[in-house]
Amino acid sequence: MSARENIFRKLRAATTAPLPSPDAAIAAHYASLPRTAQADLARVQLAKDFAEKITAWHAEVHIVPRSTWVDKLKEVVAAKGIASLLYAPATTHGKALAAAGVAGLKPYDQPIDGWKRELFENVDAAITGTRGAIAETGTMIVWPDADEPRLMSLVPPIHIALVDADTVVPTLYDAITQQKWSAGLPTNALLITGPSKTADIQQTLAYGAHGPKELIVLLLTGEDAQ
Amino acid sequence: MRAHETTHHVQFVPGSEFKRRAAEVVANPFLKKSFRGAMDFLMMKRAAQFPDPELLERQRDLAEHIRRYSLARLPELLEQLEVNLKKNGVQVHWAETPDEANAIILDICRRHDAKLMVKGKSMVSEEVELNHAMEAAGIDALESDMGEYIVQLAGEKPSHIIMPAIHKTKQQIAELFAEKVPGVSYTEDVDALIQIGRDVLRKKFMEAEVGLSGVNFAVAETGTICLVENEGNGRMCTTVPDVHIAITGIEKVVEKLEHVVPLYGLLTRSATGQAITTYFNVITGPRKPGEKDGPKEMHLVLVDNGRTQAFADEQLRQTLQCIRCGACMNHCPVYTRIGGHAYGTTYPGPIGKIVSPHMMGLGATHVLPGASTLCGACGEVCPVKIPIPDLLIRLREEATHEAKPGHAPMFGQGAGKTAFASFAFKGFAFLYSRPALYRLFTWAATRFRFLTPANQAGWTKSRTPLTPAKKSLRDLLAERSKH
Amino acid sequence: MDRHYPAGPRPTDVYFFATCLVDLFCPEAGMDAIQLLEREGIRVHFPADQTCCGQPAYTSGYADQARAVARVQLDLFPNDWPVIVPSGSCGGMIRHHYPKLFADDVALKAKAEALSGRVFELTEFFVKVLKVNWKGSGNSKKVALHTSCSARREMGTHLHARELLAQLGNVELLNHSHESECCGFGGTFAVRQPDISASMAGDKADALKETGAEKFVSADGGCLMNIDGTLEKRRDSFRGEHLASFLWHNTERAGEKE
C-alpha cells in the first residue's frame, strides 16, 4: 500500500464524532468586535486608523490627494536618492508614472529568469498598487498578477505602495469575505505590515532582514480629506 | 558558505540523558539568567496583546472550535486539499515516515540537478532531519531564517520553535559570524549582524535551484498554503527559486480561508506578542503562464510521522490542535530553567512533551511527560486550549502500563515502566484504600518519627527531610474530644 | 473555574477532608482550619476513614491505584453537606478529576459528580459561601502569599486568599515577582527531577523573601513543605505558615469582643 493509502486508512479507522461548522461563530465573533462596528463610520476614520497602525509598524506614510500622488512620488524618489525605480508598465498607476516622466523608471516587463541578478543588485525601489488595506492591524493587501509580479514587493530595498483610502476595511475577516477571496485567489496573495524585520538576535528588533528595509505608503484620498 | 562543511548532524538526546542535560543548564547561572530574561520578555509581550481576559477566552474558544472541527473532518479535508492543490498545479506527496519525506524531497532535487536548497523556517523539516538527508546526498540545505541560519552556522539545533537562537547572546553570534563568515570582522551591533546575514543569504536566494518552506495553515477549499513570517526569507524561498517544496504535517489543514483568520490572530499574539506579522504569504500554485516570476514547479509533502497515532485516540488527538505558537514553552517554568536543547526532541517544552512520544516513541521520550509539575501554565495560555496537563498524565499512564485491552499499543508503550514505581504505587493503593491500615500507619509514623530517613532520594538534595509531626491530626482531634 | 455558589442559609454542618499531608505533616494547620470553621458556628465532621485523595498515583499515571484510593473517599460523605479541604490541589483533584476517574461506571460517576459539586477549598468556602467578615488581631504584619498551581488554576484560590487577607486591615500583603509561577513541588516531580525542582523552589523562596515580608503564607501543604524545606536546608530563618494557622492566630470575627 502507498503512504497515502496507509495514512487515510489509519485516519478513517479512528472514531470521530462530527462537530458543527464554526462558520456562524466566526461571523458572530467579528460582528461583535468594536472595530467592525466602525464600518459605518466615515471611511476616513478607517484610513486614519490604518495609517496610524502601519506607521507604528515602521512604515513611512504620506497622505496625498489622488490627483497629485505622482508629484509626491517624485519628491520621495528625490529624497531617498532612488536611481532605479521598478514599476509595472501595464497597470493604471504604471501608465501614470510613465506619462509623468518620473526619473529612473525601470519596467518589470520580462520574466525574472533573464535578469534575476540585476533585480537583486541594481534596483533601488519598486512601486506597486494594493488591493486594499486593513485598519485593525495596519496591513496592506497586495495582490500580484502577471502585470505586477510578486517579487516587486520583496526584493528591492525600498517598497513604495499605493493604498486608496476608500479600500480600507476594518479586519482581515472583512477583507476575505467582502472581497470574496475564496472565489479567486492569485497564485500569491500577500498581507504586508511594515518593512521586513527580525528579532532573532537577543530579541532585538532590526529592520531589513531579507525583504525591503523601508516601506513607504502613499495613502490616496479625495481632495477634501486633506 | 557550504552547509555540509560547517554543520554536523546533531543527535537527538536520548531520554535517559534528559536529567543530566537539565542539571547542567540549571547549574549554569549565565544560561539561567538569559532564559529567564527572554521568557519574561515574551510573557510580557503576550500579556500586552490580551488586555481583556473575557475577549481572550472567547477567542480561544473559537480557535479551539475551528481546530477541533478541522480534525473531526481531517480525512475529507485532506482529500479536498489534494484535489484543489492539483487543480492549482501543485504536486502533492504523502510520507508516513521521515525517511519517506526525505526521499521524496531528494528525488525532486535530483530531477532538477539541484546543488543548493534554501530553506524557510520549517519545524517539520527539522523533525524529519531533512538537512542531514540533503547533506548526505551532497546537496547544501541552507537555513535562511536568521535564527535558524545562526543555529545552523553553529552546528546546533533550534532551542525554541519560534526563536531558534534564543539561547545565544549577541556576543556569541558576533564571534560565530567573525569565525564562520568569510571577510567578516567581529561586531556586536545587531543591525550590522543582520546585514551580514542578509548579504550572505541574498546571494544564496539567487543561486538556489530549490526553495523549501513549511506551512502554517493549508486551506482545503481553495488549495492554498499560508505562511507566517516577519523576515521575508520565507517569501524568498517560495518565490525566487524555480522549484518550491512545502512540507507540513497532515494536521495543518483547515476547511476555509475564513477559518484561518482567528487562528492567525491568536498565533502571532501568543507567540511573540505581535498583533500581526510583517508577511502573511498566501500561495495558491506555481507561476502561471504569462506570469513573470514565482516558482515554475510547486510541491507539497504531507507528513504523518506519528500523527495518525495521536489521531486514533480522541483524547490524544487534541495534541494535533497545536498551531505551533510556542506560548506553552514561553510560560513553562521547566523550559525557562533548562532551555530547549535538554529535551533532546525537535519540539521542546510542554508541546514537545505531548507530541514527541508519537513521533519518536515512548522508548526515547517516556521521561519527558514526567518532567513537569503539572502547574498548568501551558494549558492556561494555549490559544487552542489543548489540555496539556491532562495529556501529560495520560502519557505517563501509557509510558508505565501495557496497552488497555482493545487498544492498540502506542509506539514504545510501557517503556517507562519500572518495577520500583509499580511496586510503590501498588503499595500506596494498598495502604491508602484501607482506612484501618492507614490509621495504623500514621500512628506508627508519628510515634517512630525519629526513624525517618535523613536521605530521601531527590527530595533531600536541596531540602531538609520530610518528617511526620509528633501527633497526627486525628490524634489531636481525639485528644481534644477527651477534654 | 467559574462556579455557581448556592444562595440561602449558611450551612450548619460540614465535612472536613484533611488530606494526608495535613494529617501527617502539618496537623496544626488542620486543627486551626477546623477551629476557624467552628468559630463561624459550624459543626465540623471528620470522617474517620479518610486517607488521601489519590492524587500522587493519578498524576503519575497510575489511574487504577488512584481509583482504588479515591473509591474509599467517595463513601465518606453521606449527608449533603459541604466538604471542606484545606488544600487547593487536593480539592481540585476531587472536584475536577474524580468525575473523570469514574467515567466508566455510571453509579460511581454520579457519586463522584455529586461530591465534586460540594467540595470547597477552605478559603473559597470562607469567602464565597460563608461570606465571612473578619478583622485582624494583634500587631500589624507584612506577609507574602504563595498559591499552589492547581489551587490557582483549578480553584481560583489565590483570589479568595487575597480577599480574606485584604479584610484584616492590619495585614499588608506584599507581592513577589513571578507570583503565578510554580514552586517546583509537583508531587513526585520533586523526587524525579530534583535539579529542576530545586531550581524552581530556590527561585520561589528567593522571590518570597525578597518582598521583605516577615513570613509567607500558603494554603497548600505540599508547597509549604517544599519551600520551607528548601529554606531550612539553606539555614535561612525565613519561613512559611499555613494560611489556616495564620488566620486562626491573627483574626477575629468583626464586631465580636475578645
Q: How does this structure look, described?
A:
The complex is a heterotrimer of chains A (226), B (483) and C (258). Chain A is of the alpha/beta class and 226 residues long. Chain A is built from eight helices and twelve strands. Chain A starts with a helix and ends in a 5-residue tail after the last strand. Chain B folds into two domains: 306 residues, Rossmann fold (3-Layer(aba) Sandwich), CATH 3.40.50; 50 residues, no CATH class. With 258 residues, chain C is an alpha/beta fold. Chain C has 13 helices and ten strands. In chain C, helix 12 links the parallel strand 8 and strand 9. The longest helix of chain C is centred in the C-terminal third of the chain and has 17 residues. The N and C termini of chain C lie far apart (37 Å). Chains in contact: A-B, B-C. Strand 9 of chain A pairs antiparallel with strand 9 of chain B, so a sheet runs across the interface.
CATH top level label of the largest domain in chain B: Alpha Beta
The total count of strands of chain B amounts to 10
Report the mean per-residue pLDDT of chain B as an integer: 94
Q: Care to count the β-strands of chain C?
A: 10
Major sheet size, sense and barrel closure of chain C: 4 strands, parallel
Count of individual helical segments of chain B: 25
Biggest beta-sheet profile of chain B:
6 strands, parallel
Distance between the termini of chain B: 85 Å
What's the oligomerization state?
A: heterotrimer
Beta-strand proportion of chain B: 5-15%
For CATH, the homologous superfamily of the largest domain in chain B is named as NagB/RpiA/CoA transferase-like
- Which structural category fits the helices and strands of chain C? alpha/beta
